[in-house]
Amino acid sequence: MNSIKDLGSKIVYNVKNARMIEIYSNCENVEENIKNKSLLLKNKVIYVCKICKCDDTRVLVVHHLDKNHKNNNIDNLVFLCHNCHHLVHHHKVKIK
Ligand SMILES: [Zn+2]
Ligand SMILES: [Zn+2]
């Protein structure tokens, strides 16, 4: 049986932005992301991707380190660009 992960990355590669938001909503939903973004900025967290240091604010999202999106503790939240976010979720890339 194909895992959801395989299905997810296929959609990401074949269809653009609209579907991507759907996939990431498994972990981070848009509304919640905006809330957490302001929380991080309020706490003086630098607005760059934790992995590649990209600072293009158009592609930065808030990621939950423990993958539990109910845990909105500041220590559990990091900024990632869409690229690195995808790698963390689908290719088991570790955040240092
Ligand atoms: Zn990145
Ligand atoms: Zn995430």
Strand order of the largest sheet: 1-2
Rg, please? 13 Å
How many domains make up the 3D coordinates? 1
* Percent helix range: 40-55%
Share of residues in strands: 5-15%
Count of distinct strands: 2
Task: Return the structural class.
Answer: mainly alpha
Q: How would a crystallographer describe the biggest sheet?
A: 2 strands, antiparallel
Q: Which geometry do the CA atoms define?
A: globular
What pattern of helices and strands is seen along the backbone? HHHEEH
Task: Please state the average pLDDT score.
Answer: 81
Q: Which stretches are poorly predicted, pLDDT < 50 over at least 5 residues?
A: 6-15
End-to-end Cα distance, whole Å, is 32 Å
Ligand types = zinc ion
Number of helices: 4
What does this structure look like?
By secondary structure, the chain is mainly alpha-helical. It contains four helices and two strands; from the N terminus they run αααββα. The chain has one domain. Helix content is 43%, strand content 10%. A two-stranded antiparallel ribbon has the order 1-2. The longest helix is centred in the middle third of the chain and has 13 residues, at 30-42. The relative contact order is 0.18. Mean pLDDT is 81; it is low at 6-15. The protein binds zinc ion (2 copies). One zinc ion binds next to strand 1 and helix 4.
